[in-house]
């Protein structure tokens, strides 16, 4: 009995270790590219600032911004297969230009028409979709990566719109309230970041 107990314990430990390794391998093989697509935009400053600014602009416009829930994830997917066709400098400069434009619209508290808002959001999503696709490796499952990217894009834009709409409180705040001024100030910072990034790209 004394010999069997250690052997049984060793066998059990080996089985558990093997099961854990197999499970980790399955997750890495099947869902690793999905998680990479979901996490990749969160590690890029242009993605974080641009996605947040786009959601903020939509949130300040009320019901007009609801179209972005469909438009933004679609834009991320449209240009994804052609990411390698654009250079890194081109996508960075285009992203900085969009950041500057959206920041100025926020700072001016502009009432952007729905069609123009959708066009801006679609352009932002296409640019950043191409930028994210440019970093893909040949062995990456593009379908899983695209699914992860679209899911995080949908979540980010929806959450930012909702938080902005709640913060602004359009039914109770006027254009001169501190909440509206705070959003305009954030727009100014976004425009300044876009201008700085564009200058860095042009100078390099």
> Which structural category fits the helices and strands?
mainly alpha
Strand content: under 5%
| Separation of the first and last Cα atoms | 74 Å
Rg calc:
22 Å
Mean pLDDT: 80
* Overall body shape: globular
* Overall tally of structural domains: 1
Specify the biggest β-sheet: none
The helix/strand order is HHHHHHH
Q: What is the helical fraction, as a range of percent?
A: over 70%
Number of beta strands: 0
Could you list the spans in which at least 5 consecutive residues all have pLDDT below 50?
13-29
Helix segment count? 7
In short:
Keywords: Membrane, Signal, Transmembrane, Transmembrane helix. The chain has 204 residues and is an all-alpha fold. The chain has helices at 4-39, 45-60, 68-78, 88-107, 114-133, 142-168, 178-203.
Task: Give an overview of the whole structure.
With 204 residues, the protein is mainly alpha-helical. It has one domain (4-203). It is 76% helix and 0% strand. The protein contains 7 helices and no strands. The protein has helices spanning 4-39, 45-60, 68-78, 88-107, 114-133, 142-168, 178-203. Helix 1 (4-39) crosses helix 6, helix 2 runs parallel beside helix 4 (88-107) and helix 4 packs antiparallel against helix 5 (114-133). The longest helix has 36 residues, at 4-39.
């Amino acid at each position: 009995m004394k010999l069997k107990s250690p052997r049984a314990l060793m066998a059990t430990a080996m089985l558990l270790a093997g099961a854990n390794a197999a499970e980790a391998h399955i997750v890495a093989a099947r869902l690793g590219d999905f998680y990479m697509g979901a996490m990749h935009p969160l590690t890029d400053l242009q993605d974080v600032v641009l996605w947040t600014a786009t959601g903020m602009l939509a949130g300040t416009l009320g019901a007009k911004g609801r179209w972005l829930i469909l438009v933004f994830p679609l834009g991320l997917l449209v240009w994804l297969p052609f990411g390698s066709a654009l250079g890194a400098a081109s996508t960075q400069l285009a992203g900085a230009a969009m950041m500057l434009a959206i920041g100025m619209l926020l700072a001016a508290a502009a009432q952007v028409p729905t069609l123009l808002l959708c066009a801006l959001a679609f352009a932002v999503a296409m640019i950043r979709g191409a930028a994210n696709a440019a970093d893909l490796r040949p062995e990456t499952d593009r379908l899983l990566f695209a699914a992860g990217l679209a899911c995080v894009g949908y979540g980010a834009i929806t959450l930012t719109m909702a938080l902005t709409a709640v913060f602004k409180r359009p039914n109770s705040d006027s254009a001169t309230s501190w909440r509206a001024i705070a959003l305009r100030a954030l727009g100014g910072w976004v425009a300044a970041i876009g201008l700085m990034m564009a200058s860095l790209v042009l100078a390099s």
